[in-house]
Amino acid sequence: MTIENNSQTIDHRRLGTAGPIATSPGLGAMSMSGAYGPTSDAEGIAAIHTYLDAGGTLIDTGDFYGAGHNEMLIGRALSQRSRDDVILSVKFGAVLSPDGSFIGFDSRPDAIRNSLAYSLRRLGADHVDVYRPARLDPNIPIEETVGAIAELVEAGYVRSIGLSEVSAETIRRAATVAPISDLQIEYSLLTRSIESNGILAACRELGIGITAYGALAKGLFAGKTGGNRAMFPRFQGENLEHNETIISALGSVASAKGVTLPQLAIAWVAAQGEDIVPVVGSRTVQQVRATLSSTEVELSSVDLAEIDEVLSRTEVRGDRYPSALMAQLDSER
Question: Residue 179, preceding bond cis, omega within 30 degrees?
């Protein structure tokens, strides 16, 4: 369904059969805490307020974004807002070293409860709406992780249980323990593996929604290739040169339609089904407004066929993460 707010059409979609109704697109807050370079807290708070003022509700974060900084920033932004107007989606489980690098994942029940205690304090909230492990902990059965979150749901600290970057098999195992609202996973014009590896089919069979991150391909669709992006294989050497030819071809489709490539990319994800909500990372007011403007783009069957024709000519080159991080993705196994 759609709702008019401040002359902006805001799309609302339920996160699976077990989750809340949220706005599409959602706001990804990771980049507000230095993921792609220096940031300003004032700018981040202004971006969050712009999203909420436009009628947006879904804010996605992780307790490890900026080692807690992201949650504190969101807490400050929401301090004068009604908690009922915001849907907070929080990831947990990543273990960091003092230099900020990832050194593992911890989804033991006691660790989950401890992580949530800190998240609630940093967010200034008495509950989170969706709580999910950031990655599958290879040492803890997913049934045990979901069972622990289910106890937090029963206690009122969590409203819905989500998953992130897990395989179809893991999704099915998790769903035997408790209702799952949504799977957060990368899905974009350049990353469509969930269509062929059974993940999307499993989610639809089980009534689980998709919160799709990476709609802008980590900035490729916005012409951003510098900074920390150099660590990603798709931004390196000949891979980047090749991938930019795909970007150029898709840009021509967008130009012919009279829209920007980022608008087209976000609208394409949203057009793949009412059960899919693109979550777009933004850190400035301008970026939030650009993201929300994608709701004004309607893609016809002819448009979608033209896009598919462009993508059928060649494939993106390079993995979506460095090899060490790819090895941590249950969704890629």
Answer: no
CA angle, residues 150, 152, 154, in degrees to nearest 5: 70
- Please indicate, yes or no, if residue 322 is contained in any of the structural domains: no
Of 310, 306, 216, 278, nearest to 11 (Cα)?
Answer: 278
- CATH assignment at residue 293: 3.20.20.100
**Catalytic (active site) residue 118:** no
Q: Which of 51, 65, 187, 321 is catalytic?
A: 65
For residue 168, give the 3-state DSSP assignment. helix
CB 281 within 8 A of CB 221: no
The bridge status of strand 26-28 relative to strand 276-281 is parallel
Give residue-wise pLDDT tens across range 125-166: 999 999 999 999 999 999 999 999 999 999 999 999 999 999
- Say how far apart CA 37 and CA 114 lie, in whole Å: 29
The two structure tokens encoding residue 261: 């490539």
32 located within any domain: yes
Whether residue 193 is contained in a domain is answered as: yes
What global pTM score does this model have?
0.94
Which domain range does residue 289 map to?
Answer: 2-223+266-298
The domain total for the chain is 1
One-letter identity of residue 43: E
Give how far the C-alpha of residue 12 lies from the chain's centroid of Cα atoms, to the nearest Å: 16
SS3 208: coil
CA distances from 185 to 113, 137, 210, 332 (A): 24, 16, 7, 11
The answer to whether position 305 is within a domain reads no
30 neighbors 62 (Cβ within 8 angstroms) = yes
Token pair for 130: 């969706």
